[in-house]
Amino acid sequence: MNSSTDTSRSTRRTKRPVRPPLLVGLTGGIASGKSTVGALFAVLGVPVIDTDQAAREVVAPGSAVLQHIVARFGPAVLQADGSLDRRRLRELVFADAAARADLEALTHPAIAAATAAHSAAAGGSYQLIAVPLLTEKGLAHRYDRVLVVDCDPAVQRLRLTLRDGIEPAVADAMLAAQATRAQRLAVANDVIQNTGALTALTKQIETLHRRYLELAAADRPLRI
């Protein structure tokens, strides 16, 4: 038996299982403050994987997904530089359930693959995976914990009108299209209240950070 074979077998015998990061699904209604919460966790050194960022990556100019979107919805969804006009596409699918289903069938598998790749490369004791539509899509089971950023709908409405420069009626329609506050809270393991000062928000995040580190270090199934 040659030495290379001995070394290969020895490596297989001594390979140790790798504990996977604790995965925390971060969600909340539109304008609830998910991005702010994610940024504050990132300051603590926590890997934050944003599925919205993954969604932008998979429709980059020249991508196969973007080509399929143009084939389905027409060149009007492209901007002058060849990039996707996300606002125009949202307008097309917002009130058309069939069109929205077609768009999701084109994009969701690619977004899931990109998110998984980012997660695998990120490491860390635990990771935050920001998933805006986690509740709506029934994705809570994919995560070890679900963290909901909670906010009074009236505050969301005000933030949304100011942030996007839209009319209150449009903001109301956008809020109505999402899961209700009660539905999000029903799938939550942890809740952050984001209606007060930044100092109060930071304290909640620091408390959860310590809790997630403890959970990540606890006995959990290992990935071979």
In short:
The chain is of the alpha/beta class and 224 residues long. Helices cover 54% and strands 11% of the residues.
What can you tell me about this protein's structure?
The protein has 10 helices and 5 strands, in the order H-E-H-E-H-H-H-H-E-E-H-H-H-E-H. With about 220 residues, it is α/β, with parallel strands linked by helices. A 5-stranded parallel β-sheet has the order 2-3-1-4-5, sandwiched between helices. Helix 7 crosses helix 8. The two termini are about 25 Å apart.
Topology readout:
Layout: H1 3-14, E1 22-28, H2 34-43, E2 48-50, H3 51-58, H4 64-73, H5 86-94, H6 97-122, E3 126-130, E4 145-150, H7 153-164, H8 168-176, H9 181-186, E5 190-193, H10 198-217
Parallel strand pairs: 1-3, 1-4, 2-3, 4-5
Helix pairs in contact: 3-6, 4-6, 7-8
Give the overall pLDDT as a whole number. Answer: 90
Determine the N-to-C terminus distance.
Answer: 27 Å
Beta-strand fraction estimate: 5-15%
The radius of gyration is 21 Å
Structural class: alpha/beta
CA-based shape: globular
Number of strands: 5
**How is the main sheet built?**
5 strands, parallel
Contiguous helical run count = 10
Helix proportion = 40-55%
- The sequence of SSEs as H and E is HEHEHHHHEEHHHEH
Q: Order of strands across the widest beta sheet?
A: 2-3-1-4-5
Low-confidence stretches: none
